Structure formats: C-alpha cells, structure tokens
Amino acid sequence: MATFQDIEGGGITTPLGFQAGAAACGIKKVGAEKLDLTVLYTPHETTAAATFTSNRVKAAPVHVCEEHMQGNDIRAVIVNSGNANACTGEQGLADAREMAALTATKFGLKPEQVFVCSTGVIGTPMPMDRLRAGFETAAKLGEDPLPPTLAIMTSDTVPKYRAMDVALGNGQSVKIGAMTKGAGMICPNMATMLCFITTDAAITPDCLRGLTKRAVKYTFNRITVEGDMSTNDTVLVLANGLAGNTVIESDSPEAKAFYEALHDMMLSLAKAMIRDAEKATRFIELTVHGAASEEDAHTVAKAVANSVLVKCMWNAGQPYWGRVMHAIGYAGVDVEESKISIDFNDVPATRQGIAAGTSVAMMREATDADEHRLTIDLGLGEASATVYTTDLNENFVEFNLLD
Amino acid sequence: MATFQDIEGGGITTPLGFQAGAAACGIKKVGAEKLDLTVLYTPHETTAAATFTSNRVKAAPVHVCEEHMQGNDIRAVIVNSGNANACTGEQGLADAREMAALTATKFGLKPEQVFVCSTGVIGTPMPMDRLRAGFETAAKLGEDPLPPTLAIMTSDTVPKYRAMDVALGNGQSVKIGAMTKGAGMICPNMATMLCFITTDAAITPDCLRGLTKRAVKYTFNRITVEGDMSTNDTVLVLANGLAGNTVIESDSPEAKAFYEALHDMMLSLAKAMIRDAEKATRFIELTVHGAASEEDAHTVAKAVANSVLVKCMWNAGQPYWGRVMHAIGYAGVDVEESKISIDFNDVPATRQGIAAGTSVAMMREATDADEHRLTIDLGLGEASATVYTTDLNENFVEFNLLD
User: Fold this and answer.
1) Contacts of B353 in chain A (CB under 8 A)
2) Which residues in chain B are contacts of A400 at CB distance < 8 A?
C-alpha cells in the first residue's frame, strides 16, 4: 500500500512555504543564457539534515556547509553550477562565505543560516563578479520548481525533480519536494551529485537526520557510474513544519510512513541519475545475496559494478559471466568459488562456480535488454545489497575528452 | 654501472640447458595456424620461485601449480593460450593435471615436476582433444626463443622476450632469459599476465624466492591498465645452476648483482606490457612522494592510475590536475589537501592544493607527450611509490566489445 502519491509537475517549491528563483550569470559560459544560479528560501524555522561527500578533498562550500550544519535553522540555499569552487584554497572559502553572506543580507538572516553549494569545473577561481551581478535576479522568488532545477544542472540531459503527498497514517499529511543533479560522477565538469529536498513536515531533528542518513545509504550511496567520487556531493533535507502535523518522532508509525516516502523519493531520483548517466546505454540492477555481511555484499556489488571489463560486457549486451566471476574474485571479500551462482534476470548463468549450461542465446535475451538484473549468490550467508549502475561505451570516453 | 648486458635475440632458451618447442593446436581458433601451446624443459635439477594472482577466483592450473611448488625441482613448463581453464570446476582441475601428466610422461618426470599455465577465454572447457593432438609437436625442443613467446600471446601485438648476461661481481657470470605476455588485464580473452624466466645461475631456494618476490612487487605489481586482476596471473623463475657459479646466497654481493639484473628484466617486461596495453596511446610513470608510508603512497598511486576520469584526461593530453586531486581525495588515505603538490614532468601544476599558476600551454607541453611523468607530493612523510599505467580511449572500449 502506497502511503504517498506524486504531485504532477511538483518539485522543490511544492511543500508549503518554500520559494525559489534562478538566474543566468554566465558562470557556465560567459554570455550564455543558461541558468546557473539559484536561491531557495523559506521564511520559517527549519529542521535540517545533510550528508556530504566522503572524499578527503572537499570543495570550499562543503567546508562552509559542514560549519553551518552545526546550527539548526537553515532558511536559505544558494547553489551555482559551472564552477565547483574546489581546490581553490583560501580564496575559495572566502567566496563560499560571500555567497552565504549575500543571501543572508538579502533575507535578513545570519550567514550560518545559509547553505551553499557549487558544481562544475574544479581548480578555477569562482567568477564572483558575474555571480554578484546575477544574484538579485536569482533571489527573485517564485513557485516554479523548474528554473531552480535547470540552474543546478551540468552535464545532465534532463531536469530531475519530483514532489509527493505523504499520508502519515494518522489522518495527517505532509508534502515532500526535491530536485537533484548528476549524471555520472565523471564528466568534463567533475559532475557532482547534488540533491535538495524540502518538506513542510513537522519532524524532530533526530528523526529527520536518522531517516535521511538511512535513506541516503540505500539510494544515493548505492548508485555508481564509474567508481569516481566527487569533491562536492551533497544531500540536504529541509523541513519547515508548515503542514501543521503532529511532530514526527523517531520510531513512530508516522516516521515509518515518512521514511517510506523519503526513500522512494531518493531512490527514484538516484535511478534517474543513473538513467541519465553520461552516454550510458543500459541500466543494471545488481544484487548480491548470500553474503556473510551486508558490507561484504556491498563490497562485492561495487567491485562488479565498477569493473571496466564487466561494463564493456554490459555495453555489448553479452552474458560473459566469467568477467563477473573474476571481479567477484578480486573484491577483497572471502568467497568460495564453488558456491557462487550468477543469474541474468532469472536465467541461470553460473552454478557452483561453473557454467550453468544455459544456452548463450537464452542468456543474451536477458543481457541484451536496455534494463536488466544481474544477481549474484555467494552461498555463504543471509546478507544482501543492491546497487544500480550502467555500462561503459565508446561515447562515454569520447564525451569525457571534450574540453 | 650496469652489471648486466643484453644478449641480442635472446630469450627463455638462452640460459644454458633450457629448450622449448611450440605448436598450433587450434585452441585459439579451430584450424587457425596460430601457435598456442608451448613446452619448456631443462634436464637439470632446478630451484624454482613463483608468484600467483591474489584473485580469490583462481584458474585450475594456478591451483595445480601452487601444489607443485610445494616440491622444488620443476623441470618442465606447459602453457596454452586461447583458453584460461578458469571457472571450469573439477573437469578443469583434471585437465590441468592431464597437461602436467602428458609432459611428465614425455620427459620421464613426476607430474609435480611440471608447471602448468593457461591463458585465454574463461568458463569454457579445455579442448583437450586438440591439445593432446598438438602436444608432440610442442614437445619437439629447440633453441629458438620466439615460437614459445608467440605461443603464449593472446591480445598482445608484439612478442615480449629478452635475455641478458649478468656479471656477478666475483668474476663469474650467469644468464637470465625471459618471456612474458599480457596487454592490459582486460580483453575479450581475459588477458592474463604470464612471465617465465629461466637462468643458469646456481642460487639457493631462499635467495631466489626472496629476490623474485621483491622484484615482482616493484615491477609487475606496479603496473595497472584498468584495475582489473586476472584469475591466472603467474610469474615463474627457474634456475638450473648450469653456469657453474658459486651458489648465490641471500644478502651476498652476488645476490645484489643478480637482483639488479632480475629487477631490470622484470621492469622492462612490465613496461613493455603497458606499452602494448590494449589500444592505449600513452605511457604514464606516476610517482607519489611524501607519503606517511610506502603502502599509502602505493594506494594513492593506484587510485589515481585507475580513475577513469584521470585516464580520459591522459588520453586527451590535458593537464586537468583537479581530476588528480579528486582521485587522491577518495583513495582512502589520510591526506591534507593544502599540502599536496602535483607536477606534469617537471612543470608545477598544483602547489598547496591549489593551481600553481603555470599556464595551461606549458602544462600541455608535458601532458601532450606520448610518455610523461605525473608526480604527486603529499607533503606528509618520506615514503614513495611509482606505478606505470596508460590512458583509456574509445578504441579500448570498442576493442573490448569484440566477441
């Protein structure tokens, strides 16, 4: 039973009390009329939860946001695309702080109530003159969720946004809205994954943070295009309580309903990122069962998903299960070759570590589909993990050669 | 001062007492006149040292050789290309044992005195009828090092072999001969790295094993094409003592001279593999200095070398140092962004984690060369590590789509 339903055309501005604007500042390209700056604002006190990249090299705005998340009343978000403000040293930090200050001044906030994100090229100073010139336009708030979604895109080919109405099960309901960008962790612009989620739910900080952390773990952290990890990856959830629901507490039935919606929201956006992955042609749902631990299952799944060898197999639509075996073998997890089973969709490819005897034609029927499942059973335990990934093809490489 | 010099046209059969033969059995392709089986033999007692893949999924011949290396008098080696005899279960083990038995019977040896290797497609039963039919031809021994070298090639475009005369510094000399195959760890045939080295040196088992392990660590284990690791990788060194030198003992000046030659032999063959890597266009020597430990240095070097993002940069000949920073950041090693320096050849790209201010044109002069150095200084300690690697390009992917 679905406890939530989509709101047609909705997005980040759909929950009560959230508005946003966008501007073309020429950060993506001087003189280009492409939206590249957005400001999101709610005049109401919020509860916020955020997760950041685990890359040791962090962009300047990530450092600033980590500081600002020490407090707990984020009212505004400013995001630019076209420049990642990463590997930019002290000047980069000053620029990120100035972005917060500009926004704070505009809305009468403290700078630490502003969340700052950047995505784009790395190692190049922020063109702050152009950003300043476009700021006032970006800060003209409205209800349309599309312009802000367009303003955070880099190599994305489609805007990714969604809103839903969530029935909490106690007769009350809240709205969740979201926008995300990212199309593979790799691109000429160091494509970052950014996701902004708004909700008018009333929810405790502990509950929101716990649910956010868990949902990110099973959605955004389970997608992989080529194994690289950006310096800027950020997920932010802002809740302003305007729905007037009874405050959602941890471990309550309402928290469970809210989690299911939040998880579905993030999973659908994560899958949309994979489907829009740079020049990829296939979408693969890869599950490892029978592992000794969930960590082992995830480690094996990542090794297979990121193997260039396996990715070429997917691109060719071929059922070369031996390539899967070899990637399982070097994952660094204790496995027993003779216990491994591999299936393409529901077609057995490998049993007890050797060919299952299925005809190549039958296996190809599964692997030649644009979307298919690869299922591995390690035969060792009860734990499992699923990741979502893509193939690798010549266009992907060519695309990455663009300057 | 070089203590060794090359023997023109020499190879695996150059050291005293080693002979080899080769045959076209149709294992690579039925009816094709391509050499795909070779037998190497010495009638003299040997000292042997071997290293094997650390992949948990091991080919049948790797299991058999690990058993046979328990003894210490390997007299013959049989190698086929075209079929890896991997993921072939009990039948694969039986086939590998039969290859050893055939060779043992031919030369009046015990099966455990025979070393068995296979390289080629994975998961397909060995065509033992064709191998048996070609065996007698392969066992016709001769002095030419080229046919055996050709017989172990899969996707290699050039045979890789070499021999050298080694002055031990005590007025005595020995010969070392070698052949290797491998052209990237990835290919339609699951390209394995195989290396066979013969020497007529008299050397103790402990000394040979110690020097072999060390030399492999700094040569074959320091090359990477795309991060995948084969199920069959094997290095074997066989010493038969016919040079009549005083037996080389561990920690002696002669052991040092022998090591220098062995290291140079392996490094040159490892570099030849990288230069022949599937469809690669650039050769990169990547050194990480200033690490807290050699392991940290190696971990960072591997992360950068295997980043698809960085490989695309190399292919394009571009100095996108930000991509290097981001790969350093996710290597899983404690680094301090503001202490990192990056150089392309001797051109500074990054200082204190930010742009060094060198013009892109100057950096491109380095990165646009077919061969160049990438040097990273973490600024944390005294340890360093060097790896050798290649770019990634559209031909590489296309090549891997061939059936």
Assistant:
1) 57, 87, 89
2) 308-309, 312, 316
What does the DSSP 8-state code read for residue B191? P
Residues from chain A contacting residue B322 (CB–CB below 8 Å): 84, 86-87, 121-123, 190
Task: Kindly state whether B363 is in contact with chain A, defined as any CB-CB distance less than 8 angstroms.
Answer: no
DSSP 8-state symbol, B248: B
Count of H-run helices and E-run strands, chain B: 11, 17
Cβ-defined contact of A312 to B393 (cutoff 8 Å): no
Would you tell me which CATH number, out of the four given (3.60.70.12, 3.40.50.2300, 3.40.50.300, 3.10.310.30), belongs to the domain A4-275?
3.60.70.12
Mutate to test the interface with B, among A119, A228, A326 (most CBs of B within 10 A): A326
Q: How far apart are the first and last CA of chain B?
A: 48
Domain ranges of chain B: 4-275, 283-399
The backbone region for A251, taken as left when phi is positive above 0, alpha when psi lies in -120 to 50, beta otherwise, is left
Contact A325 B229 (CB under 8 A): no
Q: How many CB atoms lie within 10 A of CB B171?
A: 8
Question: Which residues 215-234 on chain A approach chain B with CB closer than 8 angstroms?
Answer: 226-231
Chain B nearest-CA residue for A325: B57
- pLDDT per residue rounded down to tens, chain B (403 residues): 568 999 999 999 999 999 999 999 999 988 878 999 999 999 999 999 999 887 888 899 999 999 999 987 999 999 999 999 999 999 999 999 999 999 999 999 999 999 999 998 889 999 999 999 999 999 999 999 999 999 999 888 899 999 999 999 999 999 999 999 986 544 333 457 899 999 999 999 999 999 999 999 898 888 876 555 667 789 999 999 999 999 999 999 999 999 999 999 999 998 888 888 766 788 999 999 999 999 999 999 988 988 877 888 898 898 989 889 988 998 989 999 999 999 999 999 999 999 999 999 999 999 999 999 999 999 999 999 999 888 876 554 444 443 3
The DSSP-derived string for A281-332 is: --EEEEEEEEESSHHHHHHHHHHHHH-HHHHHHHHHT---HHHHHHHHHTSS
- Out of B56, B312, B401, the one facing A397 most closely (by C-beta) is B312
Residue A107, sorted as left (phi over 0), alpha (psi -120 to 50) or beta, turns out to be: alpha
Instruction: For residue A156, give the nearest of A17, A2, A278, A27 by alpha carbon.
Output: A278
Q: How far is B351 from chain A (nearest CA, A)?
A: 10
Options 3.40.50.720, 3.55.50.30, 1.10.10.10, 3.10.20.340; which CATH number does A283-399 get? 3.10.20.340
Chain B nearest CA to A322, separation (Å): 6
ipTM, two decimals, is 0.80
Closest-CA residue of chain A to B57: A329
- Residues of B annotated as part of the active site: 192
Catalytic residue positions of A, numbered: 192
